[in-house]
Amino acid sequence: MTKDVLLEIGTEEIPAKFMPAALAQLENTTKAKLTELRISYGAVRAVGTPRRLAVIVKEVAITQADKHSENKGPSIKIAFGQDGTPTKAALGFARGQGVEPAALVVKDEYVYAIVQEKGRLVAELLPGLLADIVTSLSFPKSMHWGDLDMRFVRPIRWLVALFGNEVVPFTLPGVTSGKVTRGHRFLGQAEVAVNSVADYFACLSENFVMVDQDVRRQIIKEQIETLAVSRGGTATIDQELLEEVVFLVEYPTALCGDFEAKYLSLPPEAIITPMREHQRYFPVAGKDGKLLPMFITVRNGGSEHIDIVRHGNERVLKARLADARFFFEEDRKLPLADRVEKLKTIVFQEGLGTLYDKVLRLERLATGCGQILGVSQDELTIAKRGAHLSKADLVTGMVCEFTELQGIMGREYAKLSGERPEVAEAVFEHYLPRFAGDSLPQTTAGRLISIADKMDNIVATFSRDLIPTGSQDPYALRRQALGMVNILIDAKYHVSLSAIAAQAMDLLGITDNERRTKLVTDIQEFFRLRIKNILTEENLRYDMIDAVLATGNDDIYDTWLRAKAMAVEGGTVAMQKAVQALVRVGNLAKNATSETIDASLFTADAEHALYKAYIEAHTVIANYHAEKNYQGILTVLAAMAAPIDAFFGAVMVMVEDAKVKNNRLALLKSIATLAAQTADLTKIVVI
């Protein structure tokens, strides 16, 4: 026999951004706690609204599973005296296990206590279990209220705890569980009795609470799309914004508002940003893809007095757009280039000058990086000009008011100032990627400035000993390094990180050699972890990743190519055999004192055959390295397994004749060196 369990934690409004993680944590914690207590269960589902976190567990057993265990005690020599009587050690062990000394059994020269623990009624365990689930939840920020010691994301106002149709009684500071929940703050009843778990969703639905976030999400999406179509447009539904709105409302009703068409003269982003970031509105576009003078928002309630709500939202947006229009018109009075001088008034980082100083560094670092990559002179000119203007929009009124528009307005103002389109695009692209999943810069100048900007930030911050640790990353350096890695891979740029870092250190005036060496080492390790994370997310085996990273290569794109080749070839039967052979080669090669090979000293056919295979492989691999054909290199290395195995089967390496021994070791050392140029194959796990 089974029953369902319901736990609802009623609170003040929880920040929407906390909700997805909180629900996942609630679901996982519930499963873990049930399993820990040997309570069998069926499906587990966490649901929630701004005012509640709830978890429903289906088919929970009414009795805890029995526990059978064999607990190991002292050895028989210690447990029994010479006459066979239990010693104090055996008596103490038996007492601690709750069994009689006579019940101890002997096995493998040790005594064991066979413990049979009968499962308890789940109804007796649930009070402690549910209380433990609540107190185990953690949040980015918690608070305490009144004079209570308990901390939670928001004050807990009520608790619903049911096992079937029976209340599970437990108490937390200031609140006791029961079967009474609360409906919508304005539309529903203040108190709603839930008589059984099966009634939970229906009770809340009758009181204007859609407790299932998936249902709310679907309804909101359908309402927005239907409204947009009815007005002759298409809603632009940002998934992140949609997720936030889902957890801002309990009973959604979408409505459409209008704004004056004159504001459409603003850049689209200057309209969309106040809508999305400040008001949580969804923009609407026409068939031509251009914005229409309307928006869609979602209220937390029904359709009553919807016109009043619409009018209020229109007034708020009008004020926002009026501000945006004012700043835009004021900003246009001054060319973007004329604002660069004002960057001298903004400090970049303590002890590292102003943003103007940073701009001067970016001009040189972006062009320096371009020279390393061999880009054209025209691209270098675009990159230098783009770097010069890259931070100028930070002192415009629009960006000061709407910080999310940095880069976007820089591009717009650069165009309006008569700059080349490529320069304007580079000003925008140098901020990319701004967040996980964001687009990457696609122009050469945009890539160069973005790489320069991010490396300058990393080197400057590392030079102040502000290296990210644990969860602390106030300058978002991990995100910037990850962005750099993705740019280098996407652009297929072969460039040494240490070379770029060295230029950045030169521009920052870091001259002490010991300090520079430490900075380069720290930065290389920092980036190594970023590329490792990317390769792990792409489901590459950990041993293959380690094998590639062990080469110490700081060319990110080259490392990525090696890892991709390893993913294809590393798991093949031929490569697995080669790994075994090359590991044996590497172990003996450690004894080599030279890589000079004298073919006249070979005495066996297997030696000549292996030397010939090595010479041929060396030539082919050298060509493949020039072509970055790492899959081909691994194929060549795999083919060497047969002559290596034949060599070891025919010859003894460590013979008494020193010349013969050292010559054979030199051959093995040369083969090991050849293989190590691509990856440390000794790290590959042979399956």
From TrEMBL:
Molecular-function GO term, any one: glycine-tRNA ligase activity
Catalysed reactions, semicolon-separated: tRNA(Gly) + glycine + ATP = glycyl-tRNA(Gly) + AMP + diphosphate
Pfam families given in the database record: DALR_1, tRNA_synt_2f
Keyword Nucleotide-binding in annotation: yes
Keywords attached to this entry: Aminoacyl-tRNA synthetase, ATP-binding, Cytoplasm, Ligase, Membrane, Nucleotide-binding, Protein biosynthesis, Transmembrane, Transmembrane helix
Domain of life, source organism: Bacteria
Subcellular compartments: Cytoplasm
E.C. number: 6.1.1.14
InterPro entries reported in the protein's UniProt record: DALR_anticod-bd, Gly-tRNA-synth_bsu, Gly-tRNA-synth_heterodimer
Transmembrane segments: 633-655
SUPFAM superfamilies with a match to the protein in the record: HD-domain/PDEase-like
Location, primary (coarse class): cytoplasm
Leading EC class: ligase
Domain (DALR anticodon binding) ranges: 579-684
Entry-linked SMART domains: DALR_1
PANTHER family assigned: GLYCINE--TRNA LIGASE, CHLOROPLASTIC_MITOCHONDRIAL 2, GLYCYL-TRNA SYNTHETASE
UniProt record similarity statement: Belongs to the class-II aminoacyl-tRNA synthetase family.
Subunit structure: Tetramer of two alpha and two beta subunits.
NCBIfam families listed in its UniProt record: glyS
Protein name: Glycine--tRNA ligase beta subunit
The organism of origin for this protein: Sporomusa silvacetica DSM 10669
Gene: glyS
